[in-house]
Write a structure and sequence with these properties.
Blueprint (H helix, E strand, L loop, with lengths): L1 H6 L29 H12 L4 H11 L36 H4 L6 H14 L1 H5 L1 E5 L8 E8 L2 E8 L5 E2 L9 E5 L9 E2 L4 E7 L2
Helix pairs in contact: 2-3
Length: about 210
């Protein structure tokens, strides 16, 4: 969803290592699994200020820079295809499912969704050069970012929900436009978004 929001906006989107695969934070079980000096110091300070080891570990698991430093997950093999030795940081167990080998060329995979977004940016003058205007998603959709891109008589509407609950949308003027992308496998409901759903409509401006 977030990738849809940023890739179809003006400017240059940034894909950090593993975003395109859906790599997750490692969720280390022990402070001994961390290597980042800032994290280790912060953990010590939290203990000194009264946090329990469990509370402090949960916080650093959410905030540590080491979350973004685990090895790239190329395959499901031990070492994730990154190394046959012992890596500097432990590799998340879900690399057996979340890896490049499993996703490249796989219909419906997150990697192929990123490919489609990047292809659209490269092939569409509307996305590359069009004007942008933010749209009001309505009082019942406070966690939705909606905007339109226009170039000549061509129009693209993007709606992205950051809400963990379904929400109802105000009229975004998508009547007559076709749904061209979305991060759910099935078609979106009219006038609504599901949790963390992104929908893209395209057509001619009325």
């Amino acid at each position: 969803m977030l990738a849809t929001c940023t890739h179809l906006m003006k400017g240059t989107p940034y894909v950090y290592e593993g975003d395109e695969l859906g790599m997750t934070n490692p969720g280390f079980a022990s402070i001994d699994d961390f290597r980042d000096v800032e994290t280790l110091n912060y953990y010590r300070i939290m203990l000194e200020s009264g946090k329990t080891p469990e509370e402090a570990l949960q916080i650093v698991n959410e905030r540590s820079r080491d979350d973004g430093r685990t090895p790239m997950q190329w395959t499901a093999e031990p070492g994730a295809g990154f190394t046959t030795g012992t890596p500097w940081l432990s590799i998340p167990a879900n690399h057996a499912q979340v890896n490049a080998e499993a996703e490249v060329g796989a219909e419906g995979s997150l990697f192929e969704y990123y490919r489609a977004l990047i292809r659209l940016r490269h092939e569409s003058d509307l996305v590359a050069e069009g004007a942008v205007r933010f749209l009001d998603a309505g009082a019942e959709a406070p966690k939705v970012i909606a905007y339109e891109r226009t170039l000549g008589d061509e129009r693209l509407v993007v709606a992205c929900s950051f809400d963990e609950r379904p929400c109802q949308l105000a009229d975004l003027g998508t009547a007559g436009l076709a749904v061209v992308m979305g991060n759910y496998d099935d078609a979106p409901a009219a006038g609504a978004l599901r949790p963390f759903e992104a929908v893209v409509w395209h057509g001619r401006a009325s």
